[in-house]
Amino acid sequence: MQLGALLTQSLRHSGVNELFGIPGDFILPLLQQLQDQPDALPFYYLTHEPAAVYAADAAARCANRPTAVVLTYGAGALNGVNADAQAYEEYVPLIIIAGYPSVKEVASGLQIHHQAKTIDSQRTIFTEITCAQVRLDNPDTAANELQSALQQCQRNSRPVLIEIPRDAVDFNLKAAKVVLHETPQAVDELAYQRLVEALGTARRPVILSGVNVRRSGAQFALERLAEQFNIPIVTTLLGRASVNPEHSCYGGVFCGAQDTRACQLIYDADLVLAIGVVYTDSNFSAHQALIHAEHFHRIDFPKQPLKLFCARLASEPLPLFDHRDLTPIQQRETTNFSADTVVREIHQQLSRQRAIVPIISDVGDCLFASLQATPSEFLAPAYYASMGYAVPAALGVYVTSQRRPVVLVGDGAFLMTGLELAHSLRYGCRPIVVLFNNHKWDMIAAFAPTLKATALQHWQFPQLAESMGIHSLRAHDQQSFAAAFAHAWADPDRAHLIDVWLPENSRTARLQQFAQTLTAINKTGASEV
Q: Is the pLDDT of residue 526 over 70?
């Protein structure tokens, strides 16, 4: 069996329906062989390696299954390291297929182009940001090693590295050994019984749902558990997509702010059941005493089978807990035009639509403003926070869902990956891109107000968009934005960019509070602010 046939077959068996990447010399033979397969996977290529990884990352998050990205040796794979690190930290099942020199090239004793310190530096670097690394350089073992890597990607919901030498396409591969189904993971009995006992005496329990509830397929089991006993559910910022916001027990997003219903529920609880949560500084720097409290119970992935844990807990003879107020606490709405104003308008317009509309947010003020909406599909790098994610992510979401996404992106992040919009058009993706233009890196300015290296004036985004074949509008206030967004939504056959000029000092209160909290903690070393 040829490598291309084996790889296509194995990827499809793992749930992969598409490939992302950029052609490069070390993977050209492989790409040709993959293209020639009767059941070839479609290949979506972009301009820059981080963007290709972001697109694959978004496809995996949206479909909740592995996706694959193909990059050349060294210059390609190493250029995608940051994006892959984000996927690793946010538990995204990516399959990184990277080129590698042939036997003849390695034996030459020469420095190979794209090589870093050693011929194996690529693999060494990726050991830090993947849960498994294999090199398919032996035709007798390649099939089994490939199968092992794909299984670890699915089991851990994290990236793996598969290196493929340039000459591996000439292998005559042996079929993989049949692998028996793994023994199902068992619930930690001691932790489980301790939790059941605590729930038996609790009066105000709350579930804190993290991103790994979705990654492990435990969403419906967790929602049923909450319904069974009338337990409120709040999510972390990274875990927003882990619970349906229309669920009867949903209490909002716990993101550090004190003046929210989610925070009130958490701090009023006499038992917090944290399921699949990633404990990040962005969520918990100001709440370290909470997560170390005796009434805070952690059920972590992949240590625990979250779906089984929730299903078993739902069968226990526990009491039906008293109803608690889950209505959002009304925030004082400023009359100033801001990112919050923009997202509230988007939410109001989309709430009148019957279609499910994915919202993809980059980092910065647009991420905090996104809390003004409650989309059923939401993607954002809400912990690792690498800029430039949202625009290429729109392609990944479209590829897997065929839904038209709305993209929230700041001007700084757009300058990093905005040109990838031209590739989206080629593949039929027609997003609505809402560009929050405050003419600076405002996230940086929030942390360093006197720093002079944050200005981004004089970029003509409408002209840039038009040069890519994207219709562009500009908005300066709520009325003009409402009209622009309504026009874009009513025109699904074109991609639209709305250049939203935000006034000076329009930073959202959430971003300002976030920056002040982290800055104060880092200055004082205090665990609570």
A: no
